[in-house]
Amino acid sequence: MTQSLRTYLQDPLLHTLYQRVRAAGPIRSISLDITHKCNLRCIGCYYFNEDMDRHYTEDDADLDAFIERELQRGTNFITIVGGEPSIALRRLRKLYRHFKLSVATNGVKRIPKEGLEELPIGIALWGDPETDKFLRGGGKIDIFSKALRHYKDDERAFWYFTVAPGQAHVIPEVVPRLLDNGNMVLFNYYSDLAGLGGPYDYRQGFDAVRDQIDRMIERYPGRILMTPYFNKVIATGKLFDMTWGYEVCTNVSTNLEMNAERMQNGYPYNRHFRAYNADFKTTRRCCTGHQRDCASCFDTWEHFSWIMVHAKKHLRSFAHFTGWLTTVYLFYFINRLVDFQEGKQLLYRIHKHPAFASLVAPE
Where are the chain's structural domains? Predict the structure, then answer.
């Protein structure tokens, strides 16, 4: 342990967060499309934008073989995507029995508690209810109301609230409804892969969205699954001397020759990681794409990883280390890799700690 680390950990809250993360142990993670099917066709969905549904299997024996291979390989955490996981519950329960999971769902169908009692569930919401109906519901389906009912007071669930650059103003209107439903909120940033342009165009930048998210953290401490540090890194695409893109992305499939140059360029990456398609055999370049321009990727999970692998860089100051450790703890808390009930109290303390209040992603 370096002298700097010893000094930083004299802060009682940082010491607690550090001990909880160390006790939980390292993450050996992958992502998995649990099915190629979906009950929606959202405008701007990366999955269908690159025809990822062409890789699939209907044979659950392929899933059994996959589970055995990944257990032998040492995998202990899987981010479940798709397709839509709520329509593949048998597969979901089987994976839940063997791994720690986090699942992303569109909210149309409820994921029951039976056999999935401690499953972290991220519920998609794209903008305010009207925008969500336009982008995800074909202008007709009120998915938001369905999801509110399905996950009312369900502690497993948090909202994965995706906001476009021109829609920052809806954040203070929508967030109270999500919190009143008994759920926490994690933000995401809309990429506009469908090329709608205008208020949806990510090239406008996310300064206004970032500002509103920071206000929500201040207004609702302990309820927003973000910190100003994490928020700035995603919104600006800047971390130390790095600019976000494929060259620094940490979650690339390590078994693909197409990623060989990336893995040899000197930037750290998750050496265990693979992004599996719904055939449970083949992998793609990264979690959210195979050919897409990484400039359009503001994926929250990817940016969690980007910060987490750069532990040594964050030792340069108390502010940097605090930004790193709170980000790591947030990931562990959201995904229930640490005690969830204690985590709710610690999240409140993170947001209210007087020494952290002014820490916003130091350069």
Answer: 1-25+299-363
